[in-house]
Amino acid sequence: MARISLGGIVRSPSRRQARQNLQDSDRAGQISWPLLLASLIALDSGPVLHLPEMLYRRRASAPRQPWQGLPTQERQQALYWLLAQRAPQATLEPLRQWPALNRVHWPLPEVLPTISLIIPTRDQLPLLRRCMEGLLEQTDYPALELIVVDNDSCVPETHTYLAQLQARGVRVLPWPHPFNYATIQNLAVEQARGDIIGLINNDIEVRKPGWLKEMLAQLLRPGVGAVSAKLLWPNDMVQHGGVVVGMHGLAAHTGNEWLARDPGYLGFNQLAREQSAVTAACLLLCKEDWQALGGMDEHHYPVTFNDVDLCLRLRASGKRLVWTPFACLIHAESASRGKEDTPSKTARARREYAHFIRQWTGQGQTDPCYHPALASDWLNGPYGGLALPPRPQTPRYPAPFKAEI
Question: What is the dihedral of CA 347, 353, 357, 359, to 10 degrees?
Fold first, then answer.
C-alpha cells in the first residue's frame, strides 16, 4: 500500500497504473497530487472504501470549508484533464461566487428524446395554473408531453381550465377515485408516450427555462437512474436539497435551514451530487427503469415515502441518483395535498412509516451518502449536528441499501 495524501491511501499497483496512464497521455512531466488523483479516478479500477473515523485533523491554515478555498492551477488542470478522459464532450466551469467549486455542463444529444411530464391534481386551480403555465410557456424544451391526472376535481373553474389545457395539447386523464399518489403515477406512466418520465407536483413553479435540459443532461450520464432538482419555498429557503435516509428511522429533506444562495454543508447546496434518495415532487427517470421496478408501491406507500422507496429500489438495482442545484424551481410543499391532520390520515401515515422502517432501516442500515458521525434525529436534521454517540462506524463501500421485505 502506498500512502499518497493525508486523507487517503491507494494500492501500489493502482498508483503505478495511474502514473502509466499519465505517461500515455503525455502528462508524465506534470504529475502532481491532483493529477495523480484524477488519473486514479479515470482508471475506475474499483470501489473506494470509506473509513468513517476521524483519522487526522486539517491544518490550522487550511480553509474551514471547501468553498472557502481558492482554485489552484494544478487542481483545475487536473479536473480539465479528467473530464477530457471521461467525458470529452462535457465542459467545466468554476462557480462565479465560489471559484473553488465547479460545475460540469454535460452534453445533450442532437435529437432530444420526448419527455412525458405527469402532473396529478385535484382542483387547486391557482397552483395548477401557475405550474402549467410555467411548463407550457417558460420551459425551454421542444419534445414535451404534458399529462395532467385529474383526481376527481369538482370546482367548475378547474374543469374549464382543464378543457383549455386540452385545447393546447395537454393530455388530461381522469382518476375519479380516492387519492393514491402511487396509483396515479403508475397509471399515467403506463400511458405516457415518452421514453423519459418526469414527475411534477402541481405546486411546482418554474423559475428559469433551462431546468429540464439540465436534469436530462444529468440523467443521460452512464449509470444514472434518476435526477431531482433544487426546490425552494416561495421565501427562497431550500425545501429540497436531496434526501437523507435513516433520519429517526425514516427520511428527511436536506437543506431546510439554507437559503438558495447559501453554500451549505461542505458546499453541498451549490454542487450537483449523488444521493441515496430524492423527492418525486420534481423527478426525472427513464420509463424503462420505472417499468423494470414495477413502478411505485401502491399498497404499502399510497401517499408518503413512495418516492424514497422507489429511489432505494432503483439504487439497489445498480443505478445512481443525482440531485442538481442547476435546475431550481419553487415548491409549495403539501399546499395541494395538505397535512396529516385527520385520524384516518394519521393512521395511514403511521402504517407507511412502520413499513418503511421494516423494509429499509430497521436492520441498522445507514445512508452511504451520509456520515454516521452526523446526527440522525428530527431536532438537528440532516447536517445539523453530530451523532451522540456515533452510529456504527464500520468501513463502508458505496453499496446500495438492502431491503428487508
Answer: 90
Site of grid cell 445498480? 318
Handedness of CA 196, 199, 203, 207 (dihedral sign): negative
Q: What is the pLDDT of residues 312-355, one digit of tens each?
A: 999 999 999 999 999 999 998 765 556 666 888 899 999 999 99
Q: Pairing mode, if any, of strands 251-253 and 243-245?
A: antiparallel
CA 197 to chain centre: 15
Provide the β-strand partners of residue 243: 253, 277
Q: Whole-prediction pTM value?
A: 0.93
**If DSSP states are collapsed to H, E and C, what string results for 2-41?**
EEEECCEEECHHHHHHHHHHHHHCCCHHHCCHHHHHHHHH
Enumerate the β-bridge partners of residue 173. Answer: 149
Q: What span, in angstroms and rounded, lies between the C-alpha atoms of 320 and 90?
A: 19
CB-CB contact of 398 with 47 (8 Å): yes
**Contact indicator for 173, 191 with CB cutoff of 8 Å:** yes
293 three-class SS: helix
Cell digits for 70? 481558492
Is the pLDDT score of 404 beyond 70? no
* Residues 272 and 368: beta-carbon distance below 8 Å: no
Q: How far apart are CA 313 and CA 327, in angstroms?
A: 24
State the CB neighbour count (10 A cutoff) for residue 161. 18
The tally of CA atoms less than 13 A away on the side-chain side of residue 165 is 28
53-57, 222-226, 250-254, 368-372: least confident range: 53-57
Q: What is the pLDDT of residues 179-217, one digit of tens each?
A: 999 999 999 999 999 999 999 999 999 999 999 999 999
Residue 363 and residue 43 in contact, taking contact as beta carbons nearer than 8 Å: no
C-beta atoms surrounding 109 within 10 Å: 9
Bridge partners of 227, per DSSP, are: 284, 322
Beta-bridge partner residues of 103? 93
**Pick from 217, 276, 271, 218: nearest CA to 244:** 276
Count CB neighbours of 373 within 10 A. Answer: 15
In this structure, are residues 136 and 106 in contact, taking their beta carbons and an 8 Å threshold?
no
Q: Is the pLDDT at 6 greater than 80, yes or no?
A: no
